[in-house]
Amino acid sequence: MTTIAAPSPLVGRLVPAEGISRILAQVLLAVAGTLLIWASAKVKVPFYPVPVTMQVFVIMGLAATYGFRLGLATILLYMAEGAFGMPVFTDTPEKGLGIAYMMQATGGYLAGFVVMTAIVGWFAERGFDRNPFVLFGVMLTGLAVMYALGLFWLGALLGWDKPVLEWGFYPFILADLTKIALASCLVPAIWRMFRKS
Questions:
Q1: Smallest Cα–Cα separation from 112: which of 33, 27, 169?
Q2: Where are the domains of the chain?
Q3: Cα–chain-centroid distance for residue 67?
Q4: Could you read off the pLDDT of 7-25 as tens digits, one per residue?
Q5: Global pTM?
Q6: C-alpha span between 193 and 195 (Å, rounded)
């Protein structure tokens, strides 16, 4: 009788199967993931119509690579760093602003990052990270939820009589679609490299 291995995220190939070494590896990966997200929030890339950060690309890539649990732990650790005043977010000053920053106009998008990570990570753990077209669909779903939460918070905070879509959607959607297209190609490409080796 043959057994079929259940799908697991890409990180399953990199961490020990059990024991203290597994926990240590996961902690190190979570911390490394927050550093990547932090760096991606600070680097501005020229794009049309506005310069953009690479946060969505990095968060999507980590979610697809880490899976649900480790991906969610990583993004929650990142949020905790920001809540404690570390300058991890895009426009935070050197000393950070903590929860005060998180409750401003970008608060809904930050919450959306958490839900987006959970969605992509959950599907990655079920094998949806092997095909770029399937993974793009999963990431598009996560992106839609992130935008829905972000725009809802923006409208509730600033008022629905304001141009919410012009402020929080139109300038960024083309760049974010490009980022998830790149991420959805990169993760399956890494899977193919593992299969060949």
A1: 169
A2: 29-196
A3: 11
A4: 677 777 777 677 788 789 8
A5: 0.89
A6: 5
